[in-house]
Amino acid sequence: MKWGVVIALLAGLVAAAYLIWAIGFGAVIDAVARAGIGGLAILCVYALAVFVVLAAAWMTLLPRAERHDAKDFYFARLVRDSIAEISPFSPVGGMVAAGRLMILRGMNAGYAAASVTADATTEAMAQVAFLAFGIALGVAHFRDLDSAGPLTEAMVATFLLAIPGIAALILLQKKGADFAQRIAARFFPQVRGGTTFREAIHDLYDAPARLATSAALHLLAWIGAGGGTFIAFRLVGGQVSLMDALALEALLCTLRSIAAFVPAALGVQEAGYAMLAPLFGLPAELGLAVSLLKRAREIVIGIPALVYWQMVEGRAALAAGRAGDAP
Q1: Is the distance from CB of 75 to CB of 310 less than 8 angstroms?
Q2: Sign of the CA dihedral 18, 24, 26, 28?
Q3: Contact criterion met (CB below 8 Å) for 79 and 298
């Protein structure tokens, strides 16, 4: 692990601990206790349902001949997000692990690498649309709040920067195919044989209907994430409307994007919720309680997902070892 990642992780931990101390440990814990184990279970079940949409968004990118069992996409997506959320690895590490899982499940390596990449792109496209939706809601909500002006401006700036960024990403993947092939081969050695990354990425991006469907499903998942925020606030006693919860989630999405270098946005998410909650008429301790509930949900879902990942990788390693020992 690089020292920069370690420093960012430690800084995030310190920031989160300081926020809990500054806002009031007792007040935050009381808010979390209102949700209880039952509330955490509700959030976990809801999140697992959103993963169905995320898996469908990934699977729909592929031509029918290359689609595998839906549950393979589901568990691979769970592993991808769990690595990004509860491990010190970057989101790229989660993408690589998800692609490897699909290869181990029998998917063509070129399509596995290309589909993971294209899925991240359509997810980013949907995030921009969700951000635009959040900007509209935020402008309507904050028009009488001068203190929220910089936040709205940050959302607009992120939105304007994201559009050319995504366009450049797609162009690089299609036009810089040789470079992309070398990068893919570094993470997925299997792409050197069979259908290449170059062929697969062109196949995926030359199907606008599948791309649009994937992006639409990802937008639904982003809205679903806002619905999860609404449920979490209600569980801790916060009276917030669904529209305000969606606007808050879009704002937080902006903050997490800006601080993408911080592992799991540790500290950034906590500060974001604590800062944004009062703008929607909610106490800061409720915002921090929601963040902690979401962290707990990520751990409850993420640990079994990572255990599953290691079991699959372990079985593959044992099988490779037996094959190597065979005469």
Answers
A1: no
A2: negative
A3: no
